[in-house]
Design brief:
single chain; Peroxisomal Thiolase, Chain A, domain 1; eight-stranded mixed beta sheet; three-stranded mixed beta sheet; 15 strands; globular; binds 3-hydroxy-3-methylglutaryl-coenzyme A; HMG-CoA_Synthase-like
């Protein structure tokens, strides 16, 4: 008898309410070619938080939208897991703040829900889904669902090359049995190593070795894919309708996808079909030195990316996964979940019948760890996804001038204490109102 599927039953997202136009506002001040953003990094805008927004308000707002849409109340929720790398407290978890906010607007409370906070850079959103999955599979959930929230304000030090990849937003997900959106595979692959590519040693903004972080991302992804195949069997490009990756910026996904395609097409009819055009993939045993082999691989990849076969696969399986990231930037823990949502929205817009098809999810967190698993799209996916009002949210963002952006960055800088007027007016949402007597952050719901 097959097991009841467990997976994502609903998804909502909350974008920071400001936006920075990268090619038109940011690039000119940096004296850079706008094409570096639109073509190189593949980004148009960053979402940024207004002065009354933070990881708690964005997370609570995404969660409330989701609970309301699904008709759930606190009694239906047995755990709240928050993934973030923007936490402001080393003891009290963000999930308690979010539960506190939600308890202001529901009659029931979350006193019997297990709450926590997950940390492992961007991969902790996926790890929180894992925790929920394991809790349900272990039979400890008492028929209740888990609320998983990935929320971050991904800001870099002013002048850091990473400033071009900032973003802010939250993704809320319900994990449950018989899910409407996707069922998770039991098989998982991990690629994990002690790395110092990106870290925040008790500091707000990250120390980043940008170029190295890209190499580490690719190396750990490759390890995770090999590990996944060791339990799930060999993969083939036709196995997956879409491959959503962790997306620090779409240009990173471009690199990862090319390596991924080479790997999953090796020793398959897909490699043979390309052989008359670009030859077979180089095998290390055919070369006298590692250098010669690596050179041959580079040449093969340069040719592979120009083939119609690869371009069509990329346009179908990868490009729709970065549609939203292009408009919002990196949301750290939420990023791969934004990529999944982006994929499903694109499939719904194309009227594609996706039920029963598979996604291959590729998550990554600096420090560093990649995780890969498959997801099977469920029959209720379209009805679950179409109400997500992402276009409306993105359209409503306030477009910052560069000088306004500088003030917004300062107001969210924990080292600075400045007053800045809000750029937007809150409506039917949680807002940050200031600090209490024990330096706790305080919130209220604005009708
Ligand atoms: P940079 O030095 O400003 O940019 O830093 P660049 O000079 O490398 O240019 C970027 C791309 O634009 C290049 O493309 C250029 O060629 C191209 P590539 O050659 O690599 O394909 N370009 C142009 N294209 C067309 N026309 C032009 C033009 N000019 C340049 N005129 C960097 C880029 C990513 C290093 C920087 O933004 C950074 O440090 N970002 C933060 C770190 C990061 O995002 N790393 C990604 C992997 S690690 C990760 O994903 C984890 C993370 O999410 C954190 C976590 O897990 O918690 C970050």
């Amino acid at each position: 008898m097959s097991e009841t599927p467990v997976g994502i039953d609903g998804i909502e997202l909350w974008s920071g309410k400001l936006r920075l136009d990268l090619p038109n506002t940011f690039a000119p001040v940096r004296d850079e070619d706008p094409a570096k953003y639109t073509k190189g990094l593949g980004v148009e805008h960053s979402s940024l938080p207004d002065v009354y927004e933070d990881i708690v308000t964005m997370g609570a707002n995404a969660a409330k939208q989701l609970l309301d849409r699904k008709g759930l109340t606190p009694n239906d929720i047995g755990r709240i897991d928050v993934a973030t790398e923007s936490a402001f407290d080393n003891s009290k978890p963000v999930s308690t703040y979010i539960a506190g906010c939600l308890e202001e607007v529901y009659e029931e409370d979350f006193h019997h829900a297990n709450k926590g906070e997950r940390k492992f850079a961007c991969v902790s959103g996926t790890q929180s889904i894992d925790d929920a999955y394991n809790w349900i599979r272990a039979g400890r959930h008492r028929g209740r669902a888990a609320l998983v929230i990935a929320t971050d304000t991904a800001l870099y030090e002013r002048g850091d090359p990473g400033e071009a990849t900032q973003g802010a937003g939250a993704v809320a997900m319900i994990i449950d049995t018989d899910p409407d959106v996707v069922a998770l595979s039991t098989e998982q692959g991990f690629g994990s190593a002690d790395e110092t590519d990106f870290l925040k040693p008790n500091q707000q903004f990250p120390s980043v070795d940008g170029k190295r972080s890209m190499q580490v991302y690719l190396a750990r992804m490759r390890e995770a894919l090999q590990d996944y195949e060791s339990v799930a069997g060999d993969t083939h490009p036709d196995d997956f309708a879409y491959v959503p990756f962790h997306t620090p910026f779409p240009g990173m996904v471009r690199k990862a996808a090319l390596l991924g395609f080479r790997h999953i097409s090796r020793d398959t009819d897909a490699e043979s079909a390309l052989a008359s055009e670009i030859g077979n993939q180089p095998r290390e045993s055919e070369f006298v030195s590692r250098e010669a082999y690596e050179e041959a691989i580079r040449e093969y990849m340069d040719e592979l990316k120009e083939t119609d076969t690869y371009r069509e696969w990329y346009d179908d399986a990868i490009d729709p996964t970065v549609d939203v990231a292009r408009m919002v930037g990196n949301w750290y823990t939420g990023s791969v979940h934004v990529a999944r949502l982006s994929t499903l929205i694109a499939a719904a817009d194309m009227n594609r019948d996706l039920a029963g098809e598979k996604l291959l999810l590729a998550s990554y967190g600096s420090g560093a760890q990649a995780e890969i698993h498959a997801e099977t799209v469920q029959s209720g996916w379209r009805e679950a996804i179409t109400p997500v009002n992402i276009d409306e949210q993105l359209e409503a963002r306030y477009d910052l001038s560069f000088e306004e952006y500088e003030r917004v960055h300062d107001v969210h800088n924990h080292e600075k204490d400045i007053e800045v007027e809000a750029f937007t007016t809150p409506e039917a949402e949680f807002v940050f109102t200031g600090w209490g007597r024990m330096s706790e952050r305080r919130y209220e719901y604005i009708e």
